Amino acid sequence: MHRTASHDALFTNALDGLGLEQLLFGDAAAAEQCFRTSLREKERTLPPGHWDIVKSMVHLARALDAQGKWIEAEALHQSAVERYAERYGQDGKETVEIRWELMRVLEKLGKDEEALDMSEGMWEVIRKSAGDEHVDAKECWNDVLRLRTKLGTSGQEGIVMNGEDHLEAVVRE
């Protein structure tokens, strides 16, 4: 379908900026309205799949997550993960960041097994690219351990900091 309307980048950028500010200051409902309006305008005026549309989906998903509207946030994050993977690769840093947000939403929805699978995969990617001692690897591993604990997985391996600020593996029985 050919778009006949022109895209007003100034308008949508202003909405996105205002929405980000509102989200930052804790008004997720107002942020949602800004992001929804921006996304609708972009979908109306830009070609399907345009990268600005994808970024707006992520902004809206974050505002929805902040309000506990996790079902819609999950759907938006799922779509964004697919698009990010196409652009940056499945293991690209940007894709992993959006997958992490999706994993958190899945956990909030009680989809702990799916969230655990996603966390374990992300942890492997992060530790291979950045190393076990990288803060993102540690944070992701904490997510893995938390989810394993919720699911009652036994014999969990963990990573802890020893007194010399190095990582060491431990086994939790």
From TrEMBL:
| A matching Pfam family | TPR_12
Q: Where are the transmembrane segments?
A: none
Q: Which SUPFAM superfamilies match?
A: TPR-like (SSF48452)
InterPro entries for the chain: NLR-like, TPR-like_helical_dom_sf
Q: State the protein's name.
A: Tetratricopeptide repeat protein
What are the leading ranks of the lineage? Eukaryota, Fungi, Dikarya, Ascomycota, Pezizomycotina
